[in-house]
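mind reviewing this fold:
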Amino acid sequence: MGGFEVMEAVVFVLVFAAVSAKYRGNIRKGLEKLTGIKTVREGVYQGGLDDQTYEGIILETPLVILAMAVFFYYPFVVSLNNFPIYLGFITIFLFPFLILLLRIRIFSDSSILERTGIGYHPAYCFLLSIFAGGFTTGTGFSMLNFPEDPVGLAYSMIIVGLIAQAIPLFPDYINKILPFEIRSKFGYKFMVVLAIVIFFATWLIHIYLQSQYM
């Protein structure tokens, strides 16, 4: 039953996203009024992702996370009786959002280079963060639900996962140590490769940690 209910939750989130899209113009205007931060570039409040400012993308992210927190509570906590994995699932998305919010001045339209038209895109870095360390973070939280798994290993996995997730969220620091500009098509490809390397590195760390705790 748990798997079916997880699929139901996915459908509910998609429906929520569709309904939100219908009213996104009002949502963006409300966010602008509330924060004083510009959410769209040319006054096209009902437009797509390309019409949003980088800051506007960050400010809308909590709506998606809130929807997931609501709709995935029942399948994970009630049906599967696994609160740790629910907490981990939310953390996977909440952690990168909080860093983006704290670093909103870095992930802003002012970071866009005129010659490339590319900046430190928050949605791009958000997705890379989830890919790089999300699975490891979730695995660590999930292990807390099983008494036979060492608690130390679980917390170690969570820490490793969060560190892995954090790396793609500091593109400005990465940019400073590279001989090329990452705010470019080549730079974006490099960030994807970096996320893949980090993902496999977490697996190797997981294997090593297991050998120490088991």
In short: Residues 1-81 form one domain.
